[in-house]
C-alpha cells in the first residue's frame, strides 16, 4: 500500500524573491558555484537550462554522503515565482516511488517535498528538507 507524504518549510531570506526565482529557474547551472559546500556539479542531460522538460543530474552531499539525483524540470511558474522538479532517478528513487521538489520564492523561500514511500519503513525525507533550508541560506548569502 503506498504511503504518501508532504513536508513544507519556509526559510527567511534577505535577497529579493525574484532573484531567488531566477537562480531556481534560469540560473540552475550556477548553483554548484554558488553552493560548492553542498553541490559538486549539475549536468544538463536533455533540453535547455531552465526550460520545462529539461533533465539535469544534481551531484550533492547529504548526511556526509556524495549522491546523485536525476530530475526533470516539470514546471516553471514565473507569475507565482515557483519551480517544480520531479525526481526520475538516483538516490531518492531508490527509496521513494515518487519525489517532487517545489520551490516558491516569496518574501520567504518556501519549499515543499511531495513523495511516495516504497514502504512504511522508509523514513520521511527530513534530511532533504534541512538540505533545502541550508542551500537557501547559502544562495541568500550569495545574492546579498
Describe this structure in words.
This is Bet v I/Major latex protein domain-containing protein. It comes from Castanea mollissima (Chinese chestnut). Pfam families: Bet_v_1. With 144 residues, this protein is α+β, with helices and mostly antiparallel strands. 22% of the residues lie in helices and 47% in strands. A 7-stranded antiparallel sheet has the order 1-7-6-5-4-3-2. The chain is globular and about 45 Å long.
Which helices and strands appear, and what pairs or packs with what?
Blueprint: E1 3-12, H1 17-25, H2 31-34, E2 39-46, E3 55-62, E4 65-77, E5 82-90, E6 96-105, E7 108-117, H3 126-143
Organism: Castanea mollissima (Chinese chestnut)
Protein name: Bet v I/Major latex protein domain-containing protein
Domain Bet v I/Major latex protein: 2-144
Give the gist of this structure:
This protein has helices at 17-25, 31-34, 126-143; strands spanning 3-12, 39-46, 55-62, 65-77, 82-90, 96-105, 108-117.
Tally the beta strands.
7
Largest sheet: 7 strands, antiparallel
Helix content: 10-25%
Report the portion of residues in β strands.
over 45%
Oligomer: single chain
On the 0-100 scale, what is the average pLDDT?
Answer: 92
End-to-end separation in angstroms reads 46 Å
Sheet with most strands: strand arrangement: 1-7-6-5-4-3-2
Shape: globular
Which structural class best describes the helix and strand composition? alpha+beta
- Return the string of H and E elements: EHHEEEEEEH
Rounded to an integer in angstroms, the radius of gyration calculated over CA atoms is: 14 Å
InterPro entries: Bet_v_I/MLP, MLP-like_ligand-binding, START-like_dom_sf
Domain Bet v I/Major latex protein: 2-144
Protein name: Bet v I/Major latex protein domain-containing protein
Organism: Castanea mollissima (Chinese chestnut)
